[in-house]
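Hi everyone, sorry if this is the wrong subforum. Our group has a chain we'd like a structural model of before ordering constructs, and none of us has done structure prediction before. Sequence below.
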Amino acid sequence: MASSTPPGGDPQSYTSMSVGDVEAIGAHCQMAFCHQLDFLPFKCESCKGTFCLDHRTESAHKCSKAGAWARSRREASSTPSSVSSATRPNILTHEQQCSSPVCKTLINTSLVPGIHCPDCNRHYCLKHRMREEHDCAKLTPLGARPGGTSKEKGLAALEKLRAWGASKRAAVSETAKKTSLGPKTNSPAARAAAINNLKKTAKGDAKLPPEKRVYLHVEASADTTTAKYPTGKFFYNVEWSVGRILDMAAKELQVENVNNRGGGEKDRLRVFHVEGGRLLDFSEKIGKACQTGNTIVLLRGVGPPVPDLIEA
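Answer:
Right subforum, don't worry. Here is the predicted structure as tokens:
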């Protein structure tokens, strides 16, 4: 630092800057025959050189490693993509498409969960998760031995139905001992009286026209609910499906219904038609399967409907 007194003025202080200090602020362009001092120089990512504004591009300074930076960037961006595709569990592929042949919905995503059908061992979207929606009865279960699985399920269901039937007959016999003898239960007069009494006491939608009604006795087995043989008398629309009747009956009898939660067959409810001696399919119309005065029973874990279940 030096001080001087300008002519006719007061003494002032100022700083002197050498030429080397000015050149240290920026950088000289490394292009031959240029060497311009640039206060905001540009660095080439390929050859790592420093250049001015006019020679900042690879073509302008005739870069000795032209394209090296672009190639390294492409390689760096392609490698993580291949690793990520192998490790991400929810990447969308056609292997996770709904198993229904008429559906192209991709399942097992964050928006569309996949529902496993325990009967055919396939995965479906929410729309085709029910057995009647994907024609489950016509499909051979994946991984099953031909002809083996259906027979085993049928025998297990038959044993459970036989056990239920024996307990029900015992309960009916006990009830008959406690009641007075009346007209024979299989006489026309007794049947007509029973149907009239059923129509008087049955519960249902009062707005439903009488010609559209089917009156049924509804029961639930002891292993289905905490109460022992809960019963009820209800009337339903003849056009309603068995699946809808099951949902309504389970609610009325306070039976836990987990059919729509995608669980296994051992927890699923089925509707057994006593007079017909068979399990009803969920898609059947109740008016075609049953008649007024018939009895249906809610059973759990008896397997899918088997046509020759009782005769087997």
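For your construct planning: The chain is about 25% helix and 15% strand. The radius of gyration is 42 Å.
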